[in-house]
Input
Amino acid sequence: MRRIFASGIVVVVLIVGATTALAGSAKHRLDNDLISFTESATSGTNGPGGGGISGVACVSSLSTQPTSFAGNALLDCDSVGPHNETTIAVNPTNASNIVAASHTYLYNLDKQSASALLRIFTEAYVSKDGGQSWTNVHPPHGSYRFLTDPALAFDADGHLYWSNVASHDSVAGAFSDVSVIVERSDDGGITWTDPVTVAKGNGTVSNGGVNVLFNDKDWIAVDRGTSPYRGSVYVTWARQQYRQGVQTESPIYFVRSRDGGATWTSGTEISGSSPLCSGQGANGPTTRCDQNDAGFSSPIVAPDGMIYVAFLNHQAQNTSLRDQVLLVRSSDGGDTWSAPRPIVGLIHDGAGDYPTNWRGDSTLTGCQFRIFAAGNLTMSTAKANAGQLYYVYAENLEPGATARTNIMATTSGDGGATWSVPALVSSSASDQIFPWAAVGPDGKVRIGYVDRARTAPPEEKCVYGYTLATAKDLAATTFTTKRLDSGVSVASDARWFTN
Output
């Protein structure tokens, strides 16, 4: 949760888009009873559907899209409404099978009151031909009425797992019983099982509950190697505890399944304790690493079965908080975990390090959308540097009322025990945000990111494109860059955005 929106999904290497408001010219679309998914008023359950017609899959093809897209693919067939929180995975048994997913904000017109209602779900975009065409799919979500934080992972045999944070209410109301769910697809993303709740939330934060359990920002990984734990599915998230409306702790939690997602272990706290966490502030015990807010945990699994999880941890700095990046690992399939180790020291991402938007969140100069430092953890399986770890993140190199945010990369060749001095991916006076990394067959890390080094149209201040950086060497100290977008996206007046 706690991400930012975009209207329409466009695939480049990762996925990015921009937002638009509910325009007057689109109001007639609200006459549909429900847009892009099916909802049973009698049972309160949400079933599968697709595209702009409930229950009917919609296909989007490169051959039918505007020439201005220049190879970028519009994936969703939804009517008006933003999209965000993107994820993408490739089937290891069939490289032509690509599945992406995102938030979708769906509007419903209550014809009696003439008011627009909002339902927020997650939806999938499935390609079986290497990205030439895409099928827009809405999996079943049971009784949950708000879905967020989609994350996808294939196992070695082509089974696809999808984790989400799920609530019984949308942002139009209160978040209640915020849980983590997982679904599975055995046909490359077209059909899905009913969701299994792997971590159940309790209470409603906005009502100032005495004791509220709020699960946030899940991610998923699968053991595809040769270890005894091959086929195991792992999910991590931040387990936030609220008392009287105030967050008191947010440790990173972990569950696993060894039977294809049918059953799951009870949640285990894995963020651990360390002197590294002694500066968490008044809410945290001296060394317990439990002040992580959303945490942005990033799990990966090595070919030998070692599980690595990176996460952001809050540390008090004067009157504000900044994040450090920590790493824990498990060599026994998640039964036991190491103490946290440092990946990156304090990042300039706290209050006062950035300009602020309309509601006090960190943003960029001339923009309104919220930003954050988190990127992801990834590993090489190439012969040249098998086991080498990389972590990428964003940091404001000139903290203060203006922003110059750049992408940073660090690497470890000893299983996360030590890390290189973070390298600047591309020196630029323009902001670079929302990085995501993957390692190619040559062992070199590639990093996609949102890039503001674009020429803005007249009277626009907040525009961006998308750039891919490729490391020149295995140490990831220098990079080449390539522009991937075919035209700028304009978000000058948008309160929401994507990553």
The radius of gyration is 21 Å. Residues 408 and 425 are 6 Å apart (CA to CA). Confidence is low (pLDDT under 50) at residues 1-8, 12-56, 495-499. Residues 1-195 form one domain.
